Each structure stands twice: as C-alpha cells, then as structure tokens.
C-alpha cells in the first residue's frame, strides 16, 4: 500500500494521459482519459500529489442520478441542429465516467496585530427654507457622515473551511457549468468513491499559488473582527502583521460526469455534465452533409417554384408569388449551410 492509498483510504492507482498529460487517481479500471477523451490512461507510479495537501476532507455526492444524466444529455443532443451520426444519447451514456475535481480547503490559526482608521457613521439633518407658491416651505435633508479615529488591536482566531481552487481552469469550469453549491458538501466518504469507479483529477495549481486567495480571505475575516471589536462602521488604511500557524491543506472533491461524441470529421468532442445540477457543457458540431442534403432539397423546391413562375409568365398570369417563394427557399438553403458551417468552426473546448 503506498502513501496515497493510506492517506486517502482508497485502493487506487495513479495514472497519466499520454495524450493531454493530465494526471489522475483512479479507483477502478484504467480507461479513456475523461478530460481530452483521446488517450487511454496509463498507470504511472511517479504521479504524486502536492506535498502540502494531505487527504480529502470533504466531498459532494453524484446527486444527479442516471435518469437525470440521460435527460441532460438528451437535451444537449436535441439542441444540435443536423446531428452527426456519432452524436446520440445512448452512445454517450455508455461512455460516461465519474470524475471528481479537487478544491483546496484550508484551516489556519492566525495571530495578527493590526491598526486601522476606523469610521463611525452619524446622521445629520439639514433644514432648508425655500420660498415657493407665495409662501415659505421647509425641506429636510438627511446625510450620513463619518468620523475617523485611529484604532489598533490584536486578533487571534482559528479559521476553518477556507477554500481556493486546486485546478487552474476552475474559473472556466464554473463559467461553463455553474457553481458547486456548498449545500451539497458532506464528509469525505472513501467507500462511496471506491464503489463508483471514480477518476480523480490531480491538482494543476499548487498550494503556493492558492495562498494569496487564502490570505485575502483571512484578511477580510480579520478586518470584520476588528470592526466588531472597535464597534466601527467602516475601515480605511488597514494594516496587519499576521502570523499563521497550524495551516492545514486538504481537499474538497466536486463531482462531474464526462463523456464524448465524434463529429462528422471523427474529431472527439468532450461533453461534461455538472453532477449536482445536470448543466451540460460541450462544443456543438453539426453534420455538414445533412445540411447540404437539406439545402439541395430546398434548392430543388426553389427551381420548381421558378418553373411555375415561368409558366405563369407565358400565360400572362401574375407570377410574383412563386418568384418570392423561390427566393425565400434559396435564402433558407443558404442560411442552413452558413449556420452549420459557423457552428463547426468553433474550436473544441476543454473546460477543466
Ligand atoms: Zn487526456
């Protein structure tokens, strides 16, 4: 049993994707890389976690069930105009993998001396006399003003549950799929992960990188503590000299379902589903050959309308309507081709 298995209480192997280079902890069989969906994961014992962070402390469950997942994928498939053969819900369901992405959770003990300009608000009421409509009137105006006084103090606090991203693409993932609500957070349960054949992405961002986020959160907690202690309303020029002790880094694991389809040019297109909300993210590529077939049918109908217009012309009957129909059909045909061509120009996006 290696160190990671001991710390994570999981029977795992470490692996790397030969195609995108991403590293994983795998609880089941090695299979297709859930990120790029191109390479097959290869066992790699040299893969290791950042030494600062030890083990998962929290996780979120795969609360979206199979029926919900299927409905989300079906909706995604339906939204693609002129679906390529490779884009179908059943095939995507067969390729689904459960993936956990880590965030860092941090606990820290902070001992800080601080000094600040503390603002205390007070209300002023101004009366203004004004002559209008043949008489004097009084208008009353309320203003909030602030008195500033220097204050200094000392804060000693234990902070838990500070969070920062462990993946460099965290912002991209959240913008594509939406946030992972804290309400789903539960204690780390290795047996649930072991049973579910989960692939866990390894951090791509070091704790050192995340420290500035954590320090900002500690600063805002300390400012709030100073405001509470000094009974002020606002602060300016806050300065502190913090000492951090007992700082511990752990992980919160967030769940995703990943799958993929092949577009008409046999490009592999990853599709990712938020395992709490069912939100789907994936590049949409349509079938150009199906769009061309439709454009051909519309062009044929346009030709028929033009023939009708010509016959009417020779019979000296008004022929404007079939001409308009022919033009509209040609415009629709051109628009179909253009929209699928634009859809297919979008580069395949990987969101984590
Ligand atoms: Zn890969």
Structure commentary:
The chain has 352 residues and is α+β, with helices and mostly antiparallel strands. The protein has 3 domains: 3-108 and 159-284, no CATH class; 114-149, no CATH class; 289-345. It is 33% helix and 37% strand. It contains 8 helices and 11 strands. It has helices at 3-8, 66-78, 89-94, 170-177, 190-195, 207-230, 288-314, 320-345; strands at 13-16, 23-26, 42-43, 53-59, 97-132, 135-165, 186-187, 198-201, 234-262, 268-274, 280-282. Strands 1, 2, 3, 4, 5, 6, 7, 8, 9, 10 and 11 form an 11-stranded mixed β-sheet that branches. α7 runs antiparallel to α8. The longest helix is centred in the C-terminal third of the chain and has 27 residues, at 288-314. It starts with a helix and ends in a 7-residue tail after the last helix. The mean pLDDT is 93. The structure holds zinc ion (ZN).
